């Protein structure tokens, strides 16, 4: 049996466009001799559709498009497996189901409703879907095939120390006689996720001694980036076929011979993160209807990395860097920004803010009534830069990409309506130490575009004389270890201090900063998730609260 893995990039709500992608891929799969082509979870609607599922018209149009897909592929000598949002048959509960369909000769051979609905991290499926109550294998080309939707194949009781659900749908399907498992997924990327998937599904293949076909979505939808990285495994968990990471692909797996297409999958995780950010940026910009982007170039490492990613995302002709020197900007910052822009081949503009800043102080000083200079004046500079970028954004219809990293955003080392202004926070889930590693990856791709001086100089916001980040924060290699333990692992200060060998007061101070700055993060531009816990839809803390670790 030859199975095609249709790894496609869907757009949420583009029902007709998503179906056309599947039709084209199904025709190619048939031309290459496939007997089945499988597409990702909710491929008709795009994932995640979120509150679009609350619209009755959305479910009606989804049903029509599923029928359209069946008609358009009716003449092909293969079965089409795809995900869609179905309508529940029950008169109570949620209206929708997260379903998979098997289409053949213009008809729906099987509809399988997802049974295990995840409600953790970025997932909120119980909000929208009624879970399936039963499942069955389907017979096709002389084989008994099990079809599962994402989470249903992730609850192997022999793999996880603590299961999230009582039922193991794969075990039940194997007991019913399944000889092959096809799992359709919309599994977002984070660092280490690709290796985890292989381990989970290899364990299932080995345990049940059946081949496994895993098909994943690729592309960026809002804050989530899907890496694809689809694969097929034999009954011993060995790879038969592998699809590329971070791009659309169609690979064929021959289940009987154990041979298929094997694509390179970016083994270096830093390179994978870089590609994830480029893909997420590209899709966010284009799916939101923009072509051009703007970046405030400070001459620092964060804006330099963001600019390099933007070039890979939308092309150098669509990227503009804007330097906005102020009263405390150093000469080398402007020089580094200009050199970096020239090396990348992007448009570069200089829009000084010193004159406007002085006029602001002249206007406000009488109201300040002689109060000493403090963070207020620093924030005015940042907000003037935000104002400049947003004015250019309006004038040029270009999306502003913010340049703040995860370390800064975690502790509030950023200015609301200033450097936080923009439409997408590209590196907001990238700790500062990882920023440097990814910048080296950028230089490998762009022939050393980021000057070495940018790597060597101490990080600084340059909002007061001789300012350095280390004036307010511990060294980033220390800060990032505290933040990972606090933000991603939810460990208390006492445990963090003991495990890292750090003063408890230092750790408590950092954790306190994280807690106090929730109000800033919830007003920030959406960011791209690449770690296990990002500041975004998967992290839901109250703003006004009194709990202290």
Task: Give descriptors for this structure.
6-stranded mixed beta sheet; 549 residues; 16 helices; elongated; alpha/beta; 18% strand; 2 domains; 7-stranded mixed beta sheet; Rossmann fold; Nitrilase/N-carbamoyl-D-aminoacid amidohydrolase
Structure report:
It is a single chain. The chain is α/β, with parallel strands linked by helices and 549 residues long. It has 2 domains: 2-260, Carbon-nitrogen hydrolase (Nitrilase/N-carbamoyl-D-aminoacid amidohydrolase), CATH 3.60.110; 272-472, Rossmann fold, CATH 3.40.50.620. Helices cover 37% and strands 18% of the residues. It has 16 helices and 20 strands. The protein has helices at 15-31, 56-72, 169-175, 193-208, 269-287, 301-314, 331-344, 354-368, 375-396, 406-411, 432-445, 452-456, 476-488, 493-500, 504-516, 518-521, and strands spanning 2-7, 36-38, 79-87, 96-104, 107-113, 138-140, 143-149, 180-185, 212-216, 218-221, 224-227, 231-233, 239-242, 249-254, 259-260, 292-296, 319-323, 347-350, 398-402, 424-425. The strands form 4 sheets. The protein has a 7-stranded mixed beta sheet with strand order 5-4-3-2-1-14-15, covered by helices on one side. A 6-stranded mixed beta sheet has the order 6-7-8-9-12-13, with helices on one face. It has a 5-stranded parallel beta sheet with strand order 18-17-16-19-20, sandwiched between helices. Strand 6 and strand 7 form a beta hairpin. Helix 6 packs parallel to helix 7 (331-344). The longest helix has 22 residues, at 375-396. The chain is elongated and about 85 Å long. The N and C termini lie far apart (56 Å). The model has no long low-confidence stretch (mean pLDDT 94).
